[in-house]
């Protein structure tokens, strides 16, 4: 067990973020999300979005599920559970993957971190926490593996943006220069034991910090204080959504659902059909069948943004549906993700989106819409 773990039984009800009182005292606008009360914004969505692109933003992600899989059979259990082979990960590395049903439908998208030879951390979406927990437990049957929900005892805090490494470096003894993207290290932040991962959901460099819930407030305040002069501000879920959209990152419930496969979401690259896992047979059939849906990016002009559910038309025929859309704060024009079929998936294709009864011309483009300078 890693030195930052906290014990406890399997949980069923969403706990409360240990930072909720801090968000209230800061005047955040709160929203209910998957049973959690979380900050939607602290002031301006646009200002928070720009802060992450230009300096840094601090996010409370404690609603994300933190599930620990341990034991001699932990790797085999996860290989049986997800579409990727994670038992081959080096200790300290991570992989983006998916949990599918027997019919190949996406139950959730996950990040799996290997913390030790027999220890893994699975980060799942808040709305799918119990689904993932139950599936991992069921798929570990007959193997020497234990699945425990650490979510009630942990907090997850993300520091994202160009100044993130500089700010965190002053509070942590970890060699951040040696910590690659999709890597994780055991260390400390502001004197608190922490798992420090170089991952994020914004398209910027940054870190996601798993810390004991009891120490979350001290870590949160320390990061804001250390980053104040560099422009770090607290950010809510609204800006996180526009940031991930610009970065072309999928959101479960929009781009990903139980009704589609990874191939239909344009994410067939994460599927490894060379190993046995739940859903493999259905996905092998889908992989061998050309055509079908795929995920594309759309850009438009003007100020009218396409939204989830809007129809995508080619030659007056509906060929797809928008899954997410917004007026990009960084780029200044409308962007959207859509699932489309056939010729509509070809970059450069001109399509029309029905935006609340008005026709909006948009063009299919490669993803992501935004890519940070290296």
- Summarize the helix and strand pattern as letters: HEEHEEHEEEHEEHEEEHEHHEEEEEE
Number of helix segments?
8
Q: Structural class, from secondary structure content?
A: alpha+beta
Oligomeric state of the chains in view: single chain
Radius of gyration: 21 Å
Spans with pLDDT under 50 lasting ≥5 residues? 1-11
* CATH architecture grouping of the largest domain: 2-Layer Sandwich
- CATH homologous superfamily identity of the largest domain: Probable tRNA modification gtpase trme, domain 1
What is the helix fraction of residues, given as a range? 10-25%
Tell me about the largest β-sheet: 6 strands, mixed
Beta-strand residue fraction: 25-35%
Characterize the structure shown.
The protein is an alpha+beta fold. It folds into two domains: 11-289, Probable tRNA modification gtpase trme, domain 1 (Gyrase A, domain 2); 291-365, Elongation Factor Tu (Ef-tu), domain 3 (Beta Barrel). Helix content is 19%, strand content 33%. It has helices spanning 20-25, 45-54, 74-81, 129-139, 164-169, 216-227, 237-246, 280-287, and strands spanning 29-33, 36-41, 56-60, 65-70, 94-100, 106-116, 119-124, 146-149, 154-160, 184-189, 192-197, 206-212, 232-235, 293-300, 311-314, 317-327, 334-341, 350-355, 358-365. The strands form four sheets. Strands 10-11-12-9-3-13 form a six-stranded mixed sheet. A six-stranded antiparallel β-barrel has the order 14-17-16-15-18-19. A five-stranded antiparallel sheet has the order 5-6-7-4-8, covered by helices on one side. β15 (311-314) and β16 (317-327) form a beta hairpin. α2 crosses α7. The longest helix is centred in the middle third of the chain and has 12 residues, at 216-227.
């Amino acid at each position: 067990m890693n030195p930052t773990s906290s014990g406890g039984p399997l949980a069923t009800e969403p706990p409360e973020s240990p930072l909720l009182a801090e968000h209230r005292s800061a005047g955040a606008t709160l929203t209910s999300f998957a049973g959690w009360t979380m900050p939607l914004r602290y002031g301006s969505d646009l200002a928070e979005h720009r802060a992450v692109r230009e300096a840094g933003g601090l996010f409370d992600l404690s609603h994300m599920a933190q599930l620990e899989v341990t034991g001699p059979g932990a790797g085999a259990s996860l290989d049986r559970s997800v579409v990727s082979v994670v038992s081959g990960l080096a200790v300290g590395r991570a992989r983006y993957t998916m949990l599918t049903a027997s019919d190949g439908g996406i139950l959730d998208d996950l990040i799996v971190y290997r913390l030790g030879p027999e220890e893994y951390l699975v980060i799942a979406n808040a709305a799918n926490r119990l689904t993932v927990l139950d599936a991992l437990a069921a798929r570990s049957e007959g193997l020497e593996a234990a699945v425990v929900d650490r979510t009630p005892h942990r907090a997850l805090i993300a520091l994202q943006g160009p100044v993130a490494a500089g700010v965190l470096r002053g509070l942590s003894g970890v060699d951040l220069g040696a910590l690659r993207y999709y890597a994780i290290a055991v260390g400390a932040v502001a004197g608190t034991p922490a798992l420090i991962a170089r991952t994020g959901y914004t398209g910027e460099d940054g870190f996601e910090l798993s810390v004991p819930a009891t120490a979350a407030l001290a870590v949160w305040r320390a990061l804001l204080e250390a980053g104040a002069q560099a422009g770090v501000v607290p950010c809510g879920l609204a800006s996180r959504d526009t940031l991930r959209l610009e970065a072309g990152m999928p959101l479960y419930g929009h781009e990903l659902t139980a009704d589609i496969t990874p191939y239909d979401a344009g994410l067939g690259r994460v599927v490894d059909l060379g190993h046995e896992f739940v859903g493999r047979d259905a996905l092998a059939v889908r992989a061998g069948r050309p055509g079908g849906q795929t995920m594309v990016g759309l850009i438009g002009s003007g100020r009218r943004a396409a939204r989830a559910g809007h129809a995508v038309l080619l030659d007056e025929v509906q060929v797809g549906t928008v899954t997410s859309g917004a007026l990009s704060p960084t780029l200044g024009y409308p962007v959207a993700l859509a699932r489309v079929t056939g010729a509509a998936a070809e970059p450069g294709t001109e399509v029309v989106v029905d935006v609340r009864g008005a026709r909006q011309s948009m063009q299919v483009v490669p993803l992501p819409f935004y890519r940070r300078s290296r």
